[in-house]
Specification:
This protein is of the alpha/beta class and about 850 residues long.
């Protein structure tokens, strides 16, 4: 994790200017607009009315139904219908002739409508309705999935959906419900919810509940401290974009990567931002162009030239590191009223899993000298109010009338399965044969419902079916009583029901239930250890470059460990790379290393020679950079002198010749995890969604030129990147870029790195050497998985089962809370100084 409190480099600054995707921009707009209307919903899918872009009147709606949908409805009823599902007819008073201009417009749109037919929402509804009636007529069970899907589709906010089509769909749902068993639907909930692409595609975009609540909290400008706790990947870090619609924001991030990600999103929304990283004084603060008020203009381009960074009255969001907070705070106070500013502290408990850390003193100083009365402490693992009394009392004393507001949320839209060392799902009912141990874990999960996100829905459904089949539950908690309609069945409601059921099972019944569930449980990824499998292809669950590679599906994976180098070398050793191939790669890497050694020496000589020319000629020419293509051409006279100098010209030729002598290095496809040749050798059947790296030759060449360990170069050829505190800066930047673009197969990282990444991972491994991890840090580690919007197969696989116990049970000692109480308290001497300062101001 990069916790160095330093200024931004050019690459980091430039990366914030890269525009986000259209889908991301749509979400950012919702977050900003949602501040003004928390009930706002957005849906990119279109009804016919939206496609043709005509004003909708009762007459127009009836006309469109008769022209485009009525025929399909009649066909469906004729083919699969019955007396209970009647045809829908427009009311007679709506059947009026359209204006000629409207008729012409619709005629002209016929081709477009035909081309977009599969995308128009009403046709989707009619297709679902047809599937339901067809299945019921043929007495198959396929109708159940379509019925569940259609029920939820009708709850979306797609505008101007034809009411006659909706009327027909509701009749189909009513008919289907008469033939549907709640138990049967829940029994297939894993398929209907987790693996249902239609639900995801047509789902509304809305604010998360925690975002709605925090926006409402700040309708008042009274002093307040918000304890803002919600799962990772649910938009907490983007919430400041919405708050900036009504306030000026100071965003503190210990991990610079998080701040830069927010900056990128803010710039995409044309927010006026400033940066305070590694600041010693206000002179180190830098404004983005959008926030610049006083500046010079380029004479030729007319664009913004030199910015006066001392004028910050346009700044909406100040993004800073811990070291620079006080500088940023006073800067913002110089241009804004205190009541109009919110200090938004992202992940304030970072470093607090350590008893002592170099940042602790600065964190304490920031808290003690803070002047902003509106504070948000945002964290996925924030201690509860009763654990940080000292911190809260100090805040109330410092800001008279200040209130403390807790926002706790367990919003989630996807499941991330936890697996133990035997690749079996981890859930309370599968972990504890002892009844009291099970109840203790269940009570902990009920108090910390963010853990529900990591409960496997398939195993939950298996448990629910067994309990209901054997009438173990009270009548009030039987499925037919608890879930009265299909719309009640959601991922969250099923998982909440699961906890409630476990909490009501009697001790005398538990032993039998536990044994039955454990005996029927299968490993998610069975070991490939049949007799027909050669010895070198057997699986142990962690052979990620050979026999287990196919289990890493849909996207990149991350492996967290204390010893990054050890795990990296393990995968080189056990990747089945033949001696001949390995020797060839080693030879080529050694050749490139020798070339680079000569290249660096000649570049230094060239730089010195160029500098001499500048000194003698009084020019301002920059030394030649490593990449000769990016040479500064600002001083043409100096450039001509350089061309005319035989010695410099010869050095330039030698450097170019050395560059061309760098040889390409490539592994055979059979050694690249999840390539076709690799899968053919290591798995019995090809896995279509097994994830493979995508490292282009240019990137490989860039890595080969770096002064880094050879094992990192070999790992990159397999699509594996390394993140630790000892990384070469250029290597780290390349890895970040590859990770952001999801081109790496696997990232091996130290556990501290979890706070510094917002990249999307589909699978994660918690190394067996991470025995020191606190419960809060384990949850942070889990939060790296499943951050993208798509519902895919997500897993977190523990290499040490003791960490699972630590996660799913209450802890007696919350270290983060203890350290927070120590650091977030104002020293008495500082309080006296503040009182004296206030007295002097009042007297003056």
């Amino acid at each position: 994790m990069d916790l160095k409190q330093r200024k931004l480099n050019k690459t980091e600054w430039n990366n914030t200017e890269v525009p986000v995707s259209q889908d991301e921009r749509r979400i950012l707009k919702l977050i900003c607009d949602g501040y003004h209307d928390v009930s706002l919903k957005m849906n990119v899918n279109q009804s016919l009315s939206q496609v043709i872009k005509l004003d909708m009147t009762p007459e127009m709606e009836a006309y469109l139904y008769e022209r485009y949908f009525s025929g399909d409805v009649k066909k469906i009823i004729k083919k699969y219908g019955n007396d209970e599902v009647e045809n829908v007819k427009p009311r007679s008073n709506t059947m009026k002739k359209l204006k000629k201009t409207d008729s012409i417009k619709i005629d002209n749109m016929d081709k477009t409508i035909t081309e977009k037919k599969e995308m128009i929402f009403e046709y989707v509804i009619l297709n679902m309705s047809s599937m339901i009636l067809k299945s019921l007529k043929k007495q198959t069970d396929k109708y159940s999935l379509a019925l569940y899907t259609l029920t939820h589709l009708l709850g979306t906010s797609i505008k101007n959906t034809n009411t006659y089509v909706l009327d027909f769909a509701n009749k189909v749902i009513e008919y289907g419900n008469k033939h549907t068993s709640i138990l049967e639907t829940i029994g297939r909930a894993y398929e209907y919810i987790e693996k249902n692409p239609v639900l995801l595609k047509y789902d509304d975009l809305t604010l998360f509940d925690h975002q709605k609540r925090i926006y409402n909290v700040f309708r008042s400008k009274r002093p307040k401290m918000v304890l803002y706790c919600a799962p990772t990947g649910t938009g907490k870090t983007l919430t400041p974009l919405g708050l900036s619609e009504g306030y000026r924001i100071i965003f503190i991030c210990v991990s610079r990567h998080v701040g830069l990600a927010l900056a990128k999103s803010a710039i995409s929304m044309q927010k006026k931002i400033a940066f305070a990283f590694g600041c010693e004084s206000a002179e180190d603060i830098r404004l983005h162009y959008y926030a610049a008020k006083d500046y010079t203009k380029h004479r030729k381009s007319g664009g913004i030239g030199k910015v006066d960074n001392s004028v910050g009255d346009k700044v909406e969001i100040m993004i800073c590191d811990v070291q620079s907070y006080l500088t940023a705070m006073y800067y913002m106070l110089a241009f804004n009223k205190e009541e109009d500013i919110i200090t938004y502290w992202d992940e304030p408990t970072i470093t607090m899993d350590y008893e002592e850390h170099e940042l602790h003193e600065k964190i304490h100083e920031n808290w003690s000298e803070n002047k902003i009365s509106k504070i948000v402490l945002s964290c996925a693992t924030l201690p509860k109010e009763n654990e940080i009394h000292d911190c809260l009392s100090d805040y109330r004393i410092k800001f008279e009338g200040g209130e403390v507001v807790s926002i706790n949320s367990y919003d989630f839209k996807k499941s991330i399965t936890l697996l133990d060392t035997s690749n079996k799902c981890v859930l309370p009912h599968l972990l504890y044969e002892d009844y009291r141990a099970m109840r203790r874990s269940v009570e902990h999960c009920m108090e910390n419902k963010t853990l529900l996100r990591y409960f496997d829905l398939f195993e939950i459904v298996r448990f629910i079916k067994y309990i209901n089949k054997h009438n173990i539950m009270d009548d009030d908690y039987k499925l037919e009583t608890y879930f009265t309609k299909l719309s009640d069945i959601t991922m969250i409601s099923l998982k909440t029901y699961y906890l409630n059921v476990l909490n009501r099972i009697g001790e005398e019944e538990w032993s039998k239930i536990y044994k039955k569930m454990r005996d029927g449980q299968l490993a998610k990824y069975p070991e490939n250890n049949g007799e027909s499998v050669p010895e070198n292809r057997k699986s142990n669950g962690i052979q990620l470059t050979t026999s287990d590679a196919h289990t890493l599906t849909d996207g990149p994976s991350i492996f967290l460990t204390n010893d990054v180098k050890k795990i990296g070398n393990y995968y080189i050793k056990y990747s089945n790379i033949s001696k001949q191939v390995f020797d060839s790669i080693t030879h080529r890497i050694n050749h490139n290393n020798n070339v680079m050694e000569d290249l660096v020496k000649k570049q230094h000589i060239l730089e010195d020679k160029t500098a001499e020319k500048e000194d003698s000629g009084g020019g301002k020419h920059s030394a030649l950079k490593t990449n000769t293509k990016s040479k500064d051409t600002g001083d043409k006279k100096a450039e001509r002198r350089e061309k005319d100098d035989p010695e410099i010209r010869e050095l330039t030729k030698e450097i170019e010749k050395l560059r061309k002598s760098i040889v390409s290095v490539k592994l055979p496809d059979i050694n690249i995890p999840n390539s076709k040749e690799h899968q053919k050798y290591w798995t019995r059947e090809s896995v279509s969604n097994a994830f493979k790296s995508d490292i282009d030759e240019e990137t490989v060449c860039d890595i080969m030129e770096l002064e880094i360990e050879d094992y990192k170069k070999v790992l990159l050829l397999m699509g594996i990147g390394m993140f630790d505190t000892h990384n070469n800066v250029k290597y780290a930047e390349i890895m970040k870029s590859l990770a952001y673009d999801q081109r790496l197969y696997l990232i091996i990282a130290s556990d501290d790195y979890i706070y510094g990444t917002n990249y999307s991972f589909c699978h994660g491994f918690i190394g067996k050497d991470l025995t020191h991890m606190t419960q809060q840090k384990i949850i942070q580690a889990l939060g790296r998985i499943g951050r993208n919007k798509i519902q895919q197969d997500y897993t977190v696989r523990f290499r040490n089962n003791d960490l699972i116990e630590r996660l799913l049970n209450p802890v007696e000692y919350n270290q983060e809370a203890v350290i927070m109480n120590r650091l977030f308290v104002t020293d008495e001497e500082e309080e006296e100084e503040e009182e004296e300062e206030v007295h002097q101001i009042a007297t003056a």
